[in-house]
Design a protein that fits this description.
Layout: H1 17-29, H2 39-52, E1 56-60, H3 63-73, E2 81-85, H4 91-98, E3 102-106, H5 117-123, E4 128-131, H6 143-153, E5 156-159, E6 168-169, E7 172-173, E8 180-184, E9 198-202, H7 205-215, H8 238-269, E10 277-278, E11 292-296, H9 299-308, H10 338-346, E12 347-350, H11 358-372
The structure holds pyridoxal-5'-phosphate (PLP).
Amino acid sequence: MTHALPFFPPDLFDDDRAVLLEAVQRIATATEQKFILGERTAALERALRAETGAADVIACGSGTTALTLVLRAMDIGPGDEVVVPAFGCAPLASSVVSVGATPVFADVHPWTMVVEPYEVESAVTGRTAAIMPAHMFSVMADMPTLRELAEHHGVRLVEDSAVAQGGVLDGVPAGRWGEAGVYSFVQVKTFGTIGEGGAVVTDDEELAHRVRLLRNHGQDGRTRFLHHVVGYNSRFDEVMADFQLHRLPGLAGRLRRRAEIADYYTARFAPLVDYGVQAPPAGRNGRCFYVYSLLVDHRDALRHHLADRGVGSHVYYPSPLPAQPAFARFARPGQFWPHAELACARTLALPCYPHLTDAEVEHIADAVCDFSGGPR
Ligand SMILES: *Cc1c(COP(=O)(O)O)cnc(C)c1O
């Protein structure tokens, strides 16, 4: 059925359609005919540097290649292990595999669904080159502990902050906790756009230089057809850069609205915990409301109940990474990820996009509260 309130709204960019069409027209008809890695990409990188305070931001083709570029720039490859969460999206494991290294899966916290530092620590071996935690849904990973752990074990710290752009933990923006962080600009992310894109964020200028080489076939941007290293095609689009420069000033307001919606949901759902519906933790520190995800005992029943009331919902992710056919061969025999399994069986994400009206948010909360039989 079609939902009156779909989980993925079809009108995310409606307000900016005229701006987008104008940018396409302007860039398409400009005399320089520069469509990738031009002055608009450079301006977006400068704007994101200013926004994050990072020494460098490098725009690239996607969040996934941002991870790959960082791992390659760190010289992580065959024989190396990278500890990643057992619950999360495929690029966490595939980026590691794509550089020839081995992903090692660590279980997550049963409530927040971010990786458990002690599980990460117990997965570290003599071959561990890096740990790569990811922020999940609305909760940033425990970066202070993970940073200490990386320092203590002498391994690199890559922060998959693809979903958390705009989040701040203890005063430090998401993306700046790791030696390098990444952002994704795919449609549904907090700074999503009308196509593919991503960025690497880092204070390490040598690493930034290597990422810049790697994103454009090993070329340095000065001498064409001089390939310093074997690189990738992970360049950034000028129309997208122009559009994102236009969208950037509104990001903080959109994030505030998401947080407001989440606060309302969490307050409404607090009593439901006794009825098998658990909201994420309350609060704003270390949070970024990319996705508002509940933990529900009778998840599929709630999903149907909401659909009957015109409310779309979504399941991220139905299966732990080490249970995926693509990654099963990296699962260590005899190892289990019970919290990841539970999360897969119980998570249900509700709409929380910024242009939901108060009445719509209330309708969604009412629909959830009806289901549980709990108080309204
Ligand atoms: C979306 C996402 C990515 C990948 O970003 P793309 O731009 O889609 O390639 C990586 N990690 C996490 C945690 C993500 O949610």
